[in-house]
From TrEMBL, chains A, B:
The lineage of its organism: Bacteria, Bacillati, Bacillota, Clostridia, Eubacteriales. It comes from Pseudobacteroides cellulosolvens ATCC 35603 = DSM 2933. Transmembrane segments: none annotated. Residues 140-386 form the Saccharopine dehydrogenase-like C-terminal domain. This is Saccharopine dehydrogenase. Residues 5-136 form the Saccharopine dehydrogenase NADP binding domain.
Length: 399, 399
């Protein structure tokens, strides 16, 4: 049916490629490109024998012209961007220049002042519309599936949604006292940044980790969850009409927060270089070298993730509550695609979004967030593609 | 009256030199020697104008012959060893070779397998006795004053001492979330080593930090104290005849233990080098470089130490309890001698021991621990020389 150019060769990309190859009737040919072509080749080699034809290429996605050249030579129908958030705009520009649809999983952030905000990408709306091209933003899990969950609730269960609480829980255990899946810098930013939520038309700020609950999550059990800002809040506040409050909650264990806090206290998370025996060394970089390699965590991580939306509102004039969530098992993901649940839950929805676009099921010129489309086909694909969801109609609510 | 050779130029040495200079009638001339003569000169320069004549010299105290040469050229009456514990035997050998008395504050440890044990130094008893020389071991605070406290209790208040609990509390606050006074390696050893205490003629081992109490210390308040092994237990178990149980307790704050534990968890206290950008770096050494310089803590440390002995036994057939302790203020010490209480409480008793030896008040050929002498003159000097002690006759007892 079509050709996809996938940019980026990290854990999420590995999942996207594996899942595309499970649908060779849609993804007939893919080109996997990144700065380090060896990483692309490594993923390709795991999929030898796939019906989907896989190419690899080297590209520096900071440079629109390199992406344009690659698109011109491979001639894809869609670009699936799972590279770095700093590169979103350069890749969107290349799509516009070449007339190709676009999809990503995380919104653009300026490299110098990292900040979650859709304004830069939403500014491309007219350009994509005029070009007859579609850009689907944030088609991962959160953002992504959480927006589809809200659209699904709106379509089937509510006349009016008043409150949305998104709860992202990771109960994975890698067996180390401390390790990070991602860049420790991003982890530290998560727990030290001020929280923010939407209420009655305004954005309200909280101190870092100020709002905490213990929530008893299905298939996971009670966990500490903390209010954070997360990028889908911005688009949902616009797209779920009349919503009064939207909040995002994430689990952090006491142990995790304690380790990050101590490392920060002693200066090991600093990005100011110190002179050590004549060599300039950034403490955070040295810490990364001492910590377990994030790449080693996949095979040893046990347990599950649970990400979902707790929604309150009214239907036919009566109050109603609804909880829709997905539970994902780290070890099952690893067995299936060689990545654990964090990458899996992001990569599968990226493939689904691209599949619906190539099939013409989600097809509208312009720049969109996932909750702006009919959620039913996406919800159906989640059940078929490894991220089945469950519903509850009287969940515990958060204050 | 006499001449003292002081070996070592760290914080304790700084205190010893200052306190010797307060008694120029006893310490007429001193020579301060260490591997780094500049450190000796720095201490000397602070005492310009002192009646005690101060010389400095370079010596590597690992090498007996260098110490012998220095002793022969300076011709002291006593060597005060406040160098590294690894160097005790080399310095004792030099004293025997040259006919000079010896004093130290911490027992010998073999450099390859650090272990608190008196056996190596007690093996010198006959040699010192035959040479008509005296060696006084462990004349700091603990070991040192704690032994004098026990001997004083034995002499004045008890026919029979049954139980001794030594409690060493440091309530100093340097204002950093985490920093160490000493080598972090030694701090880590303290909290990760198994505990040990003497009971009914046997040594009993505990898990690291297994025994914990909250003890309400005079002038400090309630603190977490943990049972540890400490070197004076070995000599007191021998010298306090018939004692049934001796334990040593030290304060560690939850914050301190937490920081050390996290740093250990993540591998930052490891002494195994890792290859970082082509350079072999020992994580613990890099951590030291990131942590506040221990030398910077002195001027900013506020609060007090409280070290003492809680003793139970009988007098005239009746049960009796006794608590004798010293409280020392970090900032007062710093004002007086430019070192905080940790160094002060060790350095003052070293000077007192040397003073009593030079005055002939403590004078017996052989190798001895402090509790083997008449405690009264030492207790008297403590009151006069900056470490006044207090007594309680119905202290709270430890289970």
């Amino acid at each position: 049916m079509g050709k996809a150019l996938i940019i980026g060769a990290g854990g999420v990309s590995n999942v996207v490629v594996h899942k595309c190859c499970q649908h060779p009737e849609v993804f007939e040919e893919i080109c996997l490109a990144s700065r380090t072509v060896e990483k692309c080749d490594a993923i390709k080699n795991k999929l030898a024998g796939s019906k989907t034809k896989i190419h690899t290429a080297r590209v520096n996605a900071d440079d629109s012209n390199q992406v344009i050249d690659l698109i011109r030579s491979f001639n894809p129908d869609i670009v699936i961007n799972v590279a770095l958030p700093y590169q979103d705009l350069a890749i969107m520009d290349a799509c516009l220049a070449t007339g190709v649809h676009y999809l990503d999983t995380a919104n653009y952030e300026p490299p110098d002042t990292p900040k979650f905000e859709y304004k830069w990408q939403w500014a491309y709306r007219e350009k994509f519309k005029e070009a007859g091209l579609m850009a689907l933003l944030g088609s991962g899990f959160d953002p992504g599936v959480t927006g589809v969950f809200c659209a699904y609730a709106q379509k089937h269960y509510f006349d009016q949604i008043d409150y949305i609480d998104i709860v992202d829980a990771n109960a994975g255990d890698h067996g180390y006292p401390f390790a990070t899946n991602f860049n420790p810098e991003i982890n530290i930013r998560e727990i030290t940044a001020k929280g923010r939520f939407y209420e009655n038309g305004e954005w309200k700020e909280t101190e870092p980790l100020e709002y905490k609950h213990v929530y008893d999550l299905p298939e996971i059990g009670p966990k500490n969850i903390y209010l954070l800002y997360h990028e889908e809040l911005e688009s949902l506040a616009v797209n779920i009409k009349g919503v009064k409050r939207i909040r995002f909650w994430m689990t952090f264990s006491d142990n995790y927060i304690n380790h990050l806090t101590v490392l920060q206290n002693v200066g090991m998370t600093s990005i100011e270089p110190i002179n050590y025996e004549g060599k300039e060394i950034i403490p955070l970089q040295f810490l990364k070298a001492v910590l377990p390699d994030p790449g080693s965590l996949g095979p040893r991580t046990k347990g599950k993730t649970n990400i979902g939306c707790i929604i309150q509102g009214t239907k036919d004039g009566k109050p109603r509550t609804y909880y829709v969530y997905n539970v994902c098992d780290h070890q099952e993901c690893y067995r299936e695609v060689g990545s654990q649940a964090i990458s899996y839950t992001t990569g599968v929805p990226a493939m689904i979004g691209a599949k619906l676009m190539l099939q013409g099921i989600w097809n509208k010129p312009g720049v969109f967030n996932v909750e702006e489309f009919d959620p039913d086909p996406f919800m159906d694909e989640l059940n078929k593609c490894g991220l089945p969801w469950k519903e509850e109609f009287s969940p515990t609510l958060l204050d």
